[in-house]
């Protein structure tokens, strides 16, 4: 199937020579083409440019099989890439939301068996089919808001059987959803109550029982650890990352959400693809990241929902770092996968420029998922995952006019998606 989109008001995030990421001052730059066209063929971006050059560069309209779409003054963006979610879960947790309103902290809820442990209990009771059905609804929802690729973590199982069940669900979602999906094994998400007095024993189970079965079935693209106060130590984290490396499974770390945990340093030491959350990030952590290939990933939805301090994004970028932004879509601390809202939060709460926020939710999150060679920008040869906006005046309007959906049409893998 071939699609020609004509009369695009502005084609956003275009690259003639694709880059794996953007960092520092470059994040404030966003290349666009006004009055543009985009040509999609066989699921890939085949050509793009100014409407003035359409007739000179292509004889597309002579092809009887091409579908011609008139954007009629609408904009076109590459689909968002959401590199950190927990969207496979058995039930919502709005009762804990009320506890938070009443003043209980994230740690206090976790200590009494709530939070992740609550989801883990329900996960053990849920069937694969139930989880696929509920998760597919969430995937369809985020597509409507412009997401075209998503990472999904396990971590609500916390037993061998339930963790494998979660990852099998993610594998099934990869097969039936048009989204590009990566799976991450997060057996070290929380410490089950029965192992609280000997968490090393639980880490042994993650390494010696869960991981070999998961690797044998090829169920995980990445491995993750919640390295933070009250959860897993740096020693635990390094043991798990070393074990993952033996199976050629690269790390993606939850780090420094609750305190200066050493998680960033551990992630960099083991060449993690990303370290995520980063509310507690100082000069030492920034210097460590500057000399690495690890993507700092900030999750505004969780910090907002939990009323936490905000990650020092401006300091990171001023130091020359790249920054990615993801939703952390989960039932306990960020119950939304709306990446348009994440962009608005980036600008309002973190004082990021719209250009920085767009870079952070497209090309840099693609890097944080290991897919920047195929997604994250408008470039010839990349997968045709794009969305057409409603009639908006500027791309700055996307974060400015928060609370409404500015996506009108979605194309994934070169195919129109019915919304």
What does this structure look like?
- The protein is α/β, with parallel strands linked by helices.
- It has 2 domains: 2-78 and 377-417, Urease, subunit C, domain 1; 80-368, Metal-dependent hydrolases (TIM Barrel, Alpha-Beta Barrel).
- The chain is 36% helix and 22% strand.
- It contains 16 helices and 16 strands.
- It has helices at 54-57, 94-101, 106-111, 116-125, 128-144, 160-176, 199-217, 234-246, 263-269, 283-290, 300-306, 313-318, 339-349, 354-361, 363-368, 397-400; strands spanning 2-12, 32-41, 44-50, 66-70, 75-78, 80-82, 147-153, 180-188, 222-227, 250-255, 274-277, 295-298, 324-325, 386-389, 407-412, 415-417.
- The strands form 2 sheets. Strands 1, 2, 3, 4, 5, 14, 15 and 16 form an 8-stranded mixed β-sheet that branches. The chain has an 8-stranded parallel β-sheet with strand order 6-7-8-9-10-11-12-13.
- Helix 6 runs parallel beside helix 7 (199-217).
- The longest helix is centred in the middle third of the chain and has 19 residues, at 199-217.
- The radius of gyration is 21 Å and the shape is globular.
- The chain starts with a strand and ends with a strand.
Would you kindly provide a brief summary of this structure?
The protein has 419 residues and is of the alpha/beta class. The protein has 16 helices and 16 strands.
CATH architecture term of the largest domain: Alpha-Beta Barrel
C-alpha end-to-end distance: 19 Å
CATH superfamily of the largest domain: Metal-dependent hydrolases
Question: At the first level of CATH, what is the class of the largest domain?
Answer: Alpha Beta
**Beta-sheet strand percentage?**
15-25%
**Within the CATH hierarchy, at the fold level, what is the topology of the largest domain?**
TIM Barrel
What structural class results from the helix and strand content? alpha/beta
| Tally of individual helices | 16
């Amino acid at each position: 199937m071939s699609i020609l989109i004509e009369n695009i008001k502005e084609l956003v995030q275009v690259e003639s020579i694709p880059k794996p990421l953007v960092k520092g001052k470059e994040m404030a730059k966003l290349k666009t083409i006004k009055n543009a066209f985009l040509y999609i063929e066989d699921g890939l971006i085949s050509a793009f440019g100014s409407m003035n050059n359409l007739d000179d560069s292509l004889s597309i309209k002579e092809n009887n099989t091409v579908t011609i779409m008139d954007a009629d003054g609408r904009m076109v963006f590459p689909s968002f890439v959401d590199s950190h979610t927990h969207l496979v879960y058995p039930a919502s947790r709005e009762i804990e939301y009320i506890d938070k309103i009443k003043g209980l902290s994230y740690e206090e809820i976790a200590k009494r068996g709530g939070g992740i442990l609550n989801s883990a209990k329900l996960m053990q009771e849920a069937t694969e089919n139930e989880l696929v059905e509920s998760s597919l609804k969430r995937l369809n929802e985020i597509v409507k808001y412009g997401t075209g690729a998503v990472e999904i973590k396990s971590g609500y199982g916390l037993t061998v059987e339930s963790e494998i069940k979660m990852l099998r669900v993610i594998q099934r979602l990869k097969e039936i959803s048009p989204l590009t999906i990566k799976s991450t094994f997060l057996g070290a998400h929380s410490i089950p109550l029965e192992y609280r007095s000997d968490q090393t024993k639980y880490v042994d189970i993650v390494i010696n029982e869960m991981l070999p079965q998961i690797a044998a079935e090829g169920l995980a693209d990445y491995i993750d650890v919640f390295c933070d106060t009250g959860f897993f130590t740096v020693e635990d984290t390094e043991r798990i990352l070393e074990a993952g490396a033996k199976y050629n499974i690269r790390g993606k770390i939850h780090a420094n959400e609750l305190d200066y945990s050493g998680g960033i340093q551990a992630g960099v030491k083991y060449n993690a693809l990303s370290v995520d959350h980063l509310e507690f990030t100082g000069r030492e952590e920034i210097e460590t990241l500057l000399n690495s290939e690890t993507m700092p990933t900030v999750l505004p939805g969780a910090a907002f929902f939990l009323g936490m301090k905000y990650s020092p994004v401006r300091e990171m970028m001023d130091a020359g770092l790249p920054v990615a932004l993801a939703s952390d879509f989960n039932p306990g601390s960020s119950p939304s996968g709306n990446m348009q809202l994440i962009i608005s939060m980036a600008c309002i709460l973190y004082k990021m420029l719209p250009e920085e926020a767009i870079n952070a939710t497209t090309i840099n999150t693609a890097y944080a998922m290991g897919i920047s060679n195929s997604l994250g920008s408008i470039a010839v040869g990349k997968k045709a995952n794009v969305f057409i906006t409603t009639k908006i005046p500027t791309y700055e309007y996307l974060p400015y006019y928060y609370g409404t959906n500015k996506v009108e049409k979605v194309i994934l893998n070169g195919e129109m998606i019915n919304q």
